[in-house]
Specification:
single chain, 833 residues, alpha+beta, 36% helix, elongated, disordered C terminus
Length: 833
Amino acid sequence: MEKNNSASRMERRKQNKKPPKRFRKFLTYTAVTFLVLFLVIVVGGGITVFSMIKNAPELNAQNLKYASSSTVYDMNSKKVISINGKEKRDYASIKDIPPRVRNAFIATEDVRFYKHSGIDPKRVAGAILSNITHGFGSEGASTITQQVIKNSFLSPEKTVTRKIQEAYLALKLEREYSKDQILEFYLNKIYFGHGAYGVKTAAKVYFDKSLDQLTTSEIALLAGLPQRPNGYDPVKRPDLAKDRRNVVLSLMEKNGYISEQEKEKAQSVPIEKMVVKQKEETGPRYEAFLQQVIDDAEKEGISEKDLFEGGLKIYTTLDPDAQSQAEKILSTDDYVVYPDKQFQAGVVLLDTKTGEIRAIGGNRLSEKEQVSRGFNYATDTQRQPGSTIKPVLDYGPAIEYLKWSTNTPIKDEPLEINGKQVQNWDKSYHGTLTMREALVQSYNIPAIKAFQAVGEDNAKKFANNLGLGLDKIYPSYAIGGFETGVSPLKMAGAFSAFGNQGVYNQPTTLRKIEYPNGKVREIKHKPKKAMSDYTAYMVTDMLKSVVSRGTGRMAQIPGLDVAGKTGTTNLPQGVYGNGSSDSWFVGYTTRYTAAVWTGYDKTGSNTYVRKDDQVIAKLIFKQLVSHASQGKMTADFEKPGSVVARGSELYVQGTSVPALAQPKYAKSDEDTSKSDQTEEAKKEEDANKEKDKKEEEKKTDQEKPKDDGTTTTPDTPATPPKDDQGGSDQGGNGDDGQGGSNQDGGNNQDGGNNQDDGTNQDGGTDQGGDNGQDGGQQDKPDTPVTPPKDDNKPDKPAKPEKPTEPTTPPKKDTIQSNSVSSNRSKAQSDTSN
């Protein structure tokens, strides 16, 4: 009996005994094969695994050993530069990489690295489940071996073909190289940021140490960087770097590489004390443009890791000649004379027809002074757009949705919103004038009236069709008082649609991308019909008047049909002077569109755009567009059949002579109450007049009439408030829903968190000045067609055809529900034209 029991135990031991290593490897390959077949069955389409494997690239020792940075090509497909500029590489053999450094990366990237055969079945199963529940590509299962394969030979696209080829080559790599060799490839290929490839180079760059000198905290910081080198940059983003380091330390402790005490000690070390001071890195050539290439590539789903390690060929829209000229214009005084070195500028040049970005001037630093991934005033800045927004939010929508003509009369008169008087830049009112003249002279009150007539929803819809991405808007937006502002890149994209018959193209720097396996991905965005062709042409025609005889005269280019708009913004509260916080010019021809912003990082008593320097934005536009247009045929703007010309004014086909433009809005309870009170007062006044009249009739002929002061004089127009501080809108107290003091959102590079309730008032100027540039002429509007004076006489438009009777306007201009939370500062309005 005992013998039988002993035999039985022996049999059970044999049954429970683990299969030999060779058999386990066979099981792994079998499992992987079934998983691959499963993917093919799920995907379907008749493509076999064998055809995918057959087309897989061959393993190459050179590609395995060294990372390959992506290369950038220009619009003519000529090689320009590496995406990373200057690269730093110092290869380290596996024996020179301490085990604790290796373990940190294994714990973070592939904890079963030494146990699997190139593919981890557990990770594959988890990824399959995630992809079934959340969609293909939602989670990867890549081991370190697979990452080496992908970064050496394949494209980063999440496709079934790539995953099958990756799995096949990973198994093949494991058969031909040892685990230590594969780990050595990996630790020398990965990119750590600041131009550092490989763990040995990264240790020197960030800590000025050799690998064997690194602390546990430093090792964990390095192990966390490859996922997002710029995102977790300990120099620029220490808080994010700290969080990522702590995650790695937790993984190291969880997998038994360090104790809990070691983890806590390493987590307590401040990032700032770990990282050595970095030398100012000179940015690569065309730095501002390359920044946008990286941003655009990431929007297309190409990771930062793939950009810096994947050996891609990136074919861009760059015009090297225009880019070099943009950099020269901004960094020297050869073309434009700048007031000082602190004065900044950003410019974007687009192809009007395609939206392809030809050049980006990101700042005023010279090529030698450029800092890698430095601040880009053309794409990163968020500043109030001033009056450049008027075609986008006011007059464009009025033509699109209301079919206003360029001759539509608008009454420029005292306008009060939420208890505040809105002002024009010249502190005056001009009676009834045409929409064209209102835009040419850049008056604010007509712009706000157009905005109100269109309605906030339509105005926002129109702007968002042009790529501005606005969540909510207020009447202050009508004259440029945004919450967080916009960039020159967005303004260029918006204006280009006016010059392209109403078709909007998303601005981009990319044409196509070629992967190491030879596969090419075309980058194309579908054009969007943002507005009718009549809207685009009529806005363009008015903006041509802005350039020919209005505030944009200094942007004229001989021989080119140019349309454009100027814009400036108020000085913030407490800063006094004759100038503005920001100065813009956005203009276009049928070939090119350019948006220019100028100003200072922070607006202060000595750092604001003086009146004489407001011309600089126009001169930058003129210099860049005229240079880029040399030797190229540029057609004039062509009137579509949907537009009818009557004299010098334009009408939408089928519309009649316009009536007086009136804002459309509902009266609030407060308005109704005030209206009732006014009506009662009027009745009482009429009764008193009638009583006085009867008393007069009772008097004898001998008795002279006496003026006892009881008679009522005619009402006089509301006197516009005087502003002895240069027209800065001080707003309300911020606690009663009327809006706080309007301080310039342009005080910070990102525009800050400013918000507005729609009551900003325009008080600046946009008239340039005599600064000795380009003839030194003041950029002041020519004398417009003189509108009738508003002196109790019927208002008439400036030579428009006779308007029909206007509808009766509401008794008082009042906007409700435009106030914002009192704990937010208000956005600064457009102070100029």
